[in-house]
Each structure stands twice: as structure tokens, then as C-alpha cells.
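A.,

Following up on our hallway conversation. C-alpha cells first:
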């Protein structure tokens, strides 16, 4: 029978390592070379190389170190007060800063390269997402909120919110949640049962229950409700944009929201 040399070392599997996720991605680089004019690709490539470096380096290492951590929801403090405090993981806190600074949302709205700005943004998000525990989810909600507000024609809300949603300054940057899903209506939002009623002072209030909320720790949120109007002039209102005056997670508990006039925690001021 064959013998094993005494000084022969057993096989040892080496752990995987990541390089620059842009430079190592032949398919992405090939696509961008075909989809973008050469001068546009030349101008944006430095930002993609940098995001690729972060995705394969700092963010990936934080993800490995953070893999057993989960966000923590504390609903009550030691004195029985309802606080609904959410403690995010270190990776998500860092991801928010990097997303803002590198324009993962802002790039699409700055329009430095016209219609190609969306391609640039999507490439940044593609590189950013896998190493950030899907922090692209709140960013997608934020992008959708900015686009919806810009299309709404409500200039006061646009002026107040969109500069924050598209900011590159982490101190000014907001994310936006979306409160859509109910027990009776998931993808079929036509079955939405939540209603919005206008008070005598023109404020809209929600009554109902949302079963799931996206980006629950965001500064603002868009929600869906059926308007109940008391004046004929209000009858054309179909979509209400919520502009919740809230601290992080103040309006949300365990993935659901119950809006009642008696509960300051779940009270949102709405403007149509």
C-alpha cells in the first residue's frame, strides 16, 4: 500500500477573498462598455472602481464580522413606557453613510449624464448591495419616494423632502419607508382598507392597520389609503402622501402600524 510521507502537510481549504468587485466583474464592465458612450464611462468609472473597492474590502469585512447580528426592536423601556426603539447593525449604519456619500440615490437625480445617470446609479447599487445585507431595500424605497413626490406636483412636499432624499450629505440624507401591505392587500393594493379622513383644520389622518412596513426606521414614509372626503372639492383626491413628523421608528411597531386619533405614536399628519 502506498505510504504517506511524514512531512506531507494535509490539504487546507483557504477562505474565499474578494477583490475589487467592479474590476473583477467582466460581465458588468462589458455591459457598461456597450450601454454607455465612451466619454460617459470614462467620467463615471472612477466612482465604480471606488465602490468596487468598498464592496470587496471594508463593507465585505464588516459583513463577515456582522453576520450573526440582527436588528433589535425594543418596544418598552424599563419603566413601562412604549419607546419602539430600533437598534441597527453597525454595517447598516455604515452603509447609510456610504450610500449617501457615493450617491447611490442621488446620482439618478443629479442628471450629470442625462438619461445615462440611471445606468450609473444602477451600477453603483449593483456593486453596493451584496456586501451591505441588502441595504439597497431602504434605498429603493427612498428612490421610489423621491420619484413619486416629483411626479405628484405637490411643490411644498417636493421642496421639503426631495432635497433630503437625494442628498450626498449623510447629515442631511433621509431614507423613506413605504407603508402599503395589509392583510387583505399585498400586491393587490386595490383591496386596501386603510382610510384617510380630513380634519376640520385640513390635516389628514389614517385609520387602519398596515401589516408590513419597508424601511421602518426612516425619517418619512409614503403610505396608501382610501380618502374619505366631506367636501366635493376633495373628491378628486386618490393618493395621499404621508409626511410623518416622527423620530426613527416612532410610528411603527413590530412591522405594523395602527393609526388612531388617540395615539400620538401612530399619528401622522398628511397632506394630499
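Then the amino acids I'd put at each of the 272 positions:
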Amino acid at each position: 500500500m502506498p505510504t504517506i510521507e511524514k512531512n506531507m502537510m494535509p490539504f487546507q481549504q483557504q477562505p474565499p477573498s474578494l477583490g475589487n468587485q467592479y474590476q473583477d466583474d467582466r460581465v458588468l464592465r462589458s455591459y457598461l462598455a456597450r450601454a454607455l458612450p465612451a466619454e460617459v464611462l470614462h467620467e463615471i468609472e472612477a466612482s465604480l472602481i471606488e465602490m468596487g473597492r468598498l464592496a470587496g474590502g471594508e463593507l465585505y469585512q464588516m459583513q463577515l464580522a456582522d453576520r450573526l447580528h440582527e436588528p433589535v426592536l425594543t418596544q418598552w423601556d424599563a419603566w413601562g413606557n412604549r419607546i419602539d426603539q430600533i437598534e441597527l447593525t453597525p454595517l447598516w449604519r455604515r452603509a447609510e453613510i456610504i450610500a449617501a456619500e457615493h450617491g447611490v440615490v442621488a446620482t439618478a437625480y443629479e442628471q450629470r449624464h442625462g438619461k445615462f445617470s440611471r445606468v450609473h446609479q444602477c451600477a453603483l447599487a449593483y456593486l453596493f448591495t451584496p456586501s451591505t445585507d441588502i441595504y439597497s431595500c431602504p434605498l429603493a424605497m427612498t428612490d421610489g419616494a423621491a420619484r413619486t413626490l416629483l411626479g405628484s406636483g405637490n411643490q411644498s412636499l417636493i421642496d421639503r423632502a426631495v432635497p433630503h432624499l437625494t442628498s450626498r450629505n449623510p447629515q442631511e440624507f433621509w431614507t423613506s419607508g413605504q407603508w402599503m401591505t395589509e392583510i387583505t392587500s399585498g400586491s393587490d393594493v386595490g383591496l386596501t382598507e386603510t382610510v384617510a379622513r380630513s380634519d376640520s383644520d385640513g390635516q389628514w389622518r389614517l385609520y387602519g392597520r398596515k401589516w408590513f412596513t419597508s424601511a421602518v426606521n426612516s425619517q418619512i414614509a409614503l403610505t396608501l389609503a382610501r380618502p374619505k372626503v366631506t367636501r366635493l372639492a376633495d373628491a378628486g383626491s386618490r393618493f395621499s402622501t404621508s409626511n410623518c413628523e416622527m423620530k426613527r421608528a416612532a410610528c411603527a411597531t413590530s412591522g405594523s402600524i395602527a393609526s388612531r386619533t388617540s395615539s400620538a405614536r401612530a399619528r401622522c399628519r398628511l397632506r394630499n
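The longest strand covers residues 204-210. Curious whether your intuition agrees with the design.

B.
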